[in-house]
Amino acid sequence: MKKVFAILLALAMVLSLAGCSSTPATTTAAPSEATTTKAAESEAPAGDPIQIGAVLPLTGSSTGEFLKAAMEVAQDIINNSHDLDWDLAKNKGILGGRPVELVFADHQASADIATTEAAKLLDQGVVAITGAYNSGCSASVATQALEYGVPMVCGSSSSASLTDGSTYAFKSIFNRVAANDEQESQEFFEYLKYLNETCNAGIEKVAIAWINNSYGIHANEMFEKYAAQYGFQEVASVSYESSSTSFDTEAAQIKESGADAVFQASYIGDLTLFAQAYSSLQFKPAAIVCYCGGFQDASFAKVATDLGVNNYAGGQACTAQLADKLPIFSYVNELYKAKTGQDIDGPALEEFASVIVAAQAINAAGSTDAKAINETLKSTTFEAPYLITQKIHFDENGQNDIMPAVVTQLIDGKYEVVFPRDEYATADPVLDK
Amino acid sequence: MIGQIIINGLLNGAVYALVAVGLSLTWGVMDIVNFAHGEFLLWGLYSSFWIWALMGLDPLISLPIVVVLIFALGVLTYLVVIKRVLKVSGLTALLATFGLSMVLKNLTQFFWTANYRNVTKPLVSNQSFNIFGMYIRQDYVVAAAGALLLTLLVTLFLNRTKTGVAIKATSINKSAAQLVGIDTNRIYAITFGLSGACVGAAAALMASFTPIYPEACSLYSTLAFVIVALGGFGNIKGALFAGLIVGVVEALGGYFIGTSFKYLVVFLIYLIVMQIRPRGLFGW
Q: pLDDT value at position A143?
């Protein structure tokens, strides 16, 4: 029995190592019971529903429950009449009143499953497809969508390779709302430069800890590119497997490097363990700058508060602190909060935007013809009153080229906008040395 | 720096040993592979979390409750899943526990979703003692002390109590044990319960520094199997030492070879040891 099991154990180890390369992810507390909004109770729009596919990590090591909730809010905004200064929300449905029906599929954070699930949705006849959160899965979905010529509007995946125009062949049908890691890197280094110039932060040496998957690999590449371009000295680049039980060795290496600022390309579980390890090593760099992922998860705010640290910053499409300045964002946030019990975070807002943009493109194209929708997506600037930028526009490779993110810093558990220093800044940066 | 890495490795290794002690009872002593061991740990973590979230009891305080809960889960597992398949030879019991593992994992997902949960402001924090420039985490120290205590208690139980001796007798020769009047059904149930109790204690000690989600224990579970095999089947103290070895190898491997490959080094060493000493480093 023991011999037999020793063989099985070896197999399990191989599987375990394979599992190390999977892409985990985020989230916080369970969404509460969905609350019916006043708008949702109103009469449904007439006509055949227009189906839009949504492939998300709904189970497995990752969860898309919050992303799904945000997409359902978008569906509510499109299908029902809302008292907002926004035509899409005022009117019921699109193409003369036809409702949008979201068809969800679960890719379980696996690129292979994403391929299968996307193919099922496309066979079913969805007119556009959205998702898929994990960059690798978004690539799989887009590859399938290309075969069918169906447009994809990707919400929150951040890998620059998705829209570099050369890594993948799907640029003709692919469009991404979120900032990619190249845009984020540029903005982060601008932020560090600002900290040095105006806050005397003294940041010269930078290091990065990155998860060993598509998201982390490209974040690291962009980090290296822009660190050199902005004249910062890269002192450490530490990769890790997401399934690790702790990150004490990795954190010790980063600390030993003497970095003044640390970049993280991490999901919520690993970022939490890193934060604990940094804290236990009494390592407090001037800034810990995070590429989307775990930082945007509302549960990380609790972790940072618990550890008593204010030096975590990262890119966000929006934050609840901007509710007063953006009334439509505030309205969307309230609908989302009624469904989930928490404020909408960056990835959820980006997934919300992906459904809105898909509906706007179908409406503007005047039909559900895939070719017409694709042409509209590449040639139109879409109204986005729920974002700071107010607009979304995709370049020829499908990247939203109106920088869709600001730098937020977790200050006393709240995501404050600290950069750029314009009318949307909600607080001054805090150097938590 | 090397000192810090070794300290980190030893403390992490103690946590691994903590998880492996329970497994060494069912697999090492009774020769029944419980593939649901990782899920027992997972349910222990969720028990600690929910007691903390709903009743405000720190995981260290609620440790006895969690121990009892997972003890009950262990006994139930034996009565419902294992008992009926014990008489069937081959891998039936193993496959049955594999099925149970899937059921428990999916139930976890169903009941509590895939969201990450953390115990915040625990009684023992992740802050460190600074000794000779090395940072030693308080929460890890408590977990390591728990691992030592648990190993000691289980060893004493097996060697000094009637039930413990009956467990060993049953594991050596079930028929002979029955002939001398040992109720082997009861012994199996107790062993599974004790294994659950150990893993419940481990969960309570780990809950303050482990993000809790349905996949949280996958690697802990795999490492526990490696540790029991490496330590020597049936050797509880061996599991402790093997846990420490795995922790240090992982930390040093990560530091010198690359953090992405730290588990590769662990599994490689396991494979080499199994070739040289198939009964494990401390096996009889």
A: 96
Q: How far is A139 from chain B (nearest CA, A)?
A: 23
CA distance A251 to A245: 13
A13/B5 touch (CB, cutoff 8 Å), yes or no: no
**Collapsed DSSP state (helix, strand, coil) of residue A131:** strand
Residue B223 within any structural domain of the chain = yes
- Calpha distance B265→B273 (Å, rounded): 12
Hey, how many other C-beta atoms are within 10 angstroms of the C-beta on B81? 18
B33: chain A residues, CB-CB within 8 Å = 1, 5
- The total number of structural domains in chain B stands at 1
CA distance A369 to chain B (A): 37
Reported as a pLDDT band with limits 50, 70 and 90, residue A38 is very low
Confidence at residue B90, expressed as pLDDT on a 0 to 100 scale: 64
Min Cα separation A32/chain B (Å): 12
The average pLDDT across B161-172 equals 90
pLDDT of residue A250: 92
pLDDT at B284: 56
DSSP codes of every residue in B192-240? HHHHHHHHHHHHHHHTTTS-BSTTTTHHHHHHHHHHHHHH-TT-HHHHH
Residue A59 has its nearest CB partner, among B114, B128, B209, at: B114
Distance CA A340, CA A334 (A): 10
User: What CATH number has the domain bearing residue B254?
Assistant: 1.10.3470
Q: Report which residue type is found at A212.
A: N
- The predicted structure's pLDDT at residue B151: 87
Tokens standing for residue A426: 């909600």
Name the residue range of residue B160's domain.
Answer: 2-113+132-276
B131 burial level (CB within 10 Å; 0-12, 13-18, 19+)? exposed
Handedness of CA A301, A302, A304, A309 (dihedral sign): positive
For residue A359, give both structure tokens: 């509906």
> For residue B171, what are its two tokens?
């594991």
Give the list of residues 6+ apart from residue B263 with CB closer than 8 angstroms, or none: A16, A17, A20, A241, A244, B219, B250
Mutate to test the interface with B, among A241, A244, A249 (most CBs of B within 10 A): A249
Preferred mutation among B27, B32, B116 to probe A, highest tally of A CBs within 10 A: B116
Structure tokens, B66: 């969690």
Q: Could you give the 3-state DSSP secondary structure of residue B45?
A: helix
Dump pLDDT digits (tens) for A57-105: 887 544 688 899 999 999 999 999 999 999 999 999 999 999 999 999 9
Whose CA is closest to A188, among A424, A418, A423? A418
- According to DSSP, the residues that pair with A101 across neighbouring strands are A51
- Determine the straight-line distance between the first and last CA of chain B, rounded to whole angstroms: 37
The answer to the question of residue B282 being in a domain is no
Domain membership of residue B121 (yes or no) is no
Closest approach of A128 to chain B, Cα-based (Å) = 27
Residue A37 pLDDT > 80 = no
Residues of A in contact with B219 (CB under 8 A): 16, 19, 243-245
The C-alpha atoms of residue A343 and residue B218 are separated, in whole angstroms, by 31
Query: Residue A398 region, left (φ>0) first, then alpha (ψ -120 to 50), else beta?
Result: left
Give the integer Cα–Cα distance in Å for A343 and A345.
Answer: 6
CA-nearest of A262, A201, A202, A254 to A227 is A262
Residues of chain B found within 8 Å of residue A12, distances taken between Cβ atoms: 222, 225
Tokens of B168: 């060993």
Residue B87 domain flag: yes
